[in-house]
Design brief:
About 40% of the residues lie in helices and about 20% in strands. It has ten helices and eleven strands. A nine-stranded mixed sheet has the order 1-2-4-3-5-6-7-10-11, sandwiched between helices. Strands 8-9 form a two-stranded antiparallel sheet. The protein is globular.
Length: about 270
Amino acid sequence: MPKVKANNITIHYEIKGQGTPILFLHGSGASWKMWEPQFEEFSSSYQMIMPDYRGHGDTTKEFPNNKYDHHIIVEDIKCFLDVLGISKIHVIGVSQGGQLATLLAIKYPTYVDKLVISNSYSEMPTIAASWVLTISNFIFSLLPYSTIINIMMKFYKGDPYTQRILRKSFSIDKKMLLAMKKAPFPTHTDQLHRIKSPTLVMGGEGKVITGVDEGKGSRTIFNHIRNAKLALFKNAFDPLSTMRRDIFNEMIIDFLEYQPLKQYKDVTIFSK
């Protein structure tokens, strides 16, 4: 369980494999263990660097002024790379990790070689999504943590594999979960043009819940990045790293290796 001091906090991370390094940024509430479906495919040819970012896993939980802040986490990640002596690296982020990866590429473009953004948004999808978030925050504040997790797992009632991986990787308590959900959304659509890295955007096609349309969110990101590809998956959503793990892994490796993206059933690919 290696740990380093960076940006005045302690960051826990795990490394698997050898070769060209890739930074993997997990989803909200999860930990480095979320990347289990990628271990075999990526560690055979790459060095997987998987930190628990601030508030998660075995990394420091505290935030300045006790306010969850995505931009502070981005600074943590940049400082983490500095401590490891890494000045340029491929970055893969899923869900909230996709937002963090995107913000890193915007603010520190020289650090990001190739960028993969999966199941992410650059702005709050709709007004309805804001209402859903507010209502869910209120409901969650009244419920035991175990009940909250069980409710979240109902989205994956037909996917026991995803349920297993997510349950195994959850690493925050109720207090941190609520702080994270109440934090200001890191809107950055108007800054996406700053990204210089070749980028692969991946997302589910269609609505997940009322007001949350992954396809629309992914298209927005794709449309604002100059050098980008987009892959939309039917009948799948956040996280594609588990729900469509085989295609997810193969597609990203092809992208990193400058290979043409293959055609897959129920996946639509767009290129610029």
